[in-house]
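FAQ

Q: What does a record look like?
A: Structure on top, sequence underneath. For example:
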């Protein structure tokens, strides 16, 4: 019964998000202040800053709302990041939807995977590690890392390795805690530093 209730709540939640649409053209104009870190079209050239191009609109909107929440709560809630909290603080709900629509409509540039990380990275991504209780990434993010918009799982394919590494480390330390039901924290805390390094680099060339 509890599971059914959760499914209904999630379905209703995603339906309400789907009904609220952003204006990509308006989002383009509003993205001018984002370009320094994320690029004019969302293809960041700064390794520590995420590529936003092609990311699911629902996921982008969720992150912006949670950066804003962190700013409003002094970091007690949401997703805490000193730079993004300030950027999101003044955004209206329409601003958030417009920005999400703009970046979701951009074409992401492909990344690459170092040869020496392919074998281990692929094994971890596709099969996880049963003995250590590490769930395979493919279960939520799909064969090519494209994620699932309806379920709220982000597209992680082609993302900068440095950014992915930082996020996995934040989940592992629980300094980032805005993942659904603590899923990423549970997985990341079972990973070694080498696992995180290899997997982050492997995802760069997964398309």
């Amino acid at each position: 019964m509890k599971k059914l209730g959760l499914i209904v709540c999630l379905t209703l939640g995603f339906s309400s998000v789907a009904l609220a649409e952003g204006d990509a053209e308006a989002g383009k104009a509003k993205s001018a202040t984002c370009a320094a870190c994320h690029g004019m079209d969302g293809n960041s050239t700064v390794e520590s800053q995420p590529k936003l191009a092609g990311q699911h609109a629902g996921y982008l909107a969720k992150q912006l709302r949670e950066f804003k929440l962190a700013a409003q709560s002094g970091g007690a809630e949401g997703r805490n990041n000193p730079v993004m909290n300030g950027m999101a603080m003044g955004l209206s709900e329409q601003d958030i939807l417009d920005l999400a629509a703009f970046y979701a409509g951009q074409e992401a540039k492909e990344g690459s995977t170092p040869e020496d990380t392919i074998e281990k990275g692929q094994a971890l991504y596709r099969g996880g590690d049963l003995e250590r209780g590490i769930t395979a990434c493919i279960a939520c993010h799909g064969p090519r890392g494209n994620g699932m918009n309806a379920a709220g799982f982000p597209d992680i394919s082609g993302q900068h390795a440095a950014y992915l590494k930082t996020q996995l480390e934040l989940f592992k330390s629980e300094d980032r805690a805005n993942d659904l039901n603590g899923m990423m924290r549970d997985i990341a805390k079972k990973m070694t530093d080498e696992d995180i390094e290899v997997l982050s680099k492997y995802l760069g060339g997964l398309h």
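Q: Is there anything notable about this one?
A: Residues 1-19 have pLDDT under 50 and may be disordered.
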